[in-house]
Amino acid sequence: MTFSLARAWLALATALVVAVVDAPWPAIVAQALLAALAARRAWLFARGLPVPAMRGLRQTARTLGRLARLKAPEGGWLAAGQGDLVNLFMVVAAAVTLAFAAAPPAAYPLSAFIVPVVALAARAVDEGFPRGGGTIEGAALAATLAGGAIVLALRGGSPAWCLVALWFSLFPALAWRRRA
After folding, report:
1. Is residue 114 helix, strand or coil?
2. Phi-psi map region of 55: left, alpha, beta (phi>0 left; psi -120 to 50 alpha)
3. pLDDT tens digits along 59-116
4. I need a surface site. Which of 85, 125, 154, 167 has the fewest CB within 10 A?
């Protein structure tokens, strides 16, 4: 289990260094926070302690509403933090993918999404892909990400960005699998 913790810390630190080089400052701040929360999740998992469940898009929308009213999220900041940040990165990635599918740009903002990609990879290696709890919003997000990635690939877009979008689409799509 210690190997898992060391691997997660190393991967997240490397991803954060890559992000700092090229990403805009709001993305750097969000990714630094996500890296800290993902490292905390890996630490809890490595110690056999309960890990906060990943959150759905409805919960993320409720959290944003509570934050707009200057209230703490349901379940507290640490429980909501990583799940909500990952969901926000996925929604932004879906919007960006659709925009890129309409008009492929010269440069792709891969560095603004490197930490969520690595955080989800570390989670998949340690805890496996999600099972059960799929929602309509998650299915729509997965379809948007995957469909946008396919259209972008057909229009000659960046293969790396298409892989990022497909990677993000796996998590809400696989949540529809039945629990073992």
Report:
1. helix
2. beta
3. 888 888 888 888 877 777 766 777 778 888 888 889 989 998 888 888 888 877 888 8
4. 154
Q: Which two tokens stand for residue 165?
A: 């979008």
Widest Cα–Cα separation across the chain: 46
- Whether this model's pTM surpasses 0.85: no
Q: How far is CA 174 from CA 120, 130, 131, 143, 169, in A?
A: 13, 6, 6, 12, 9
Structure tokens at 2: 């210690």
**Residue 87 Cα distances to 3, 55, 59, 157, angstroms:** 27, 8, 10, 24
Helix ranges, the chain (H): 2-22, 25-46, 57-68, 77-102, 114-127, 136-154, 159-174
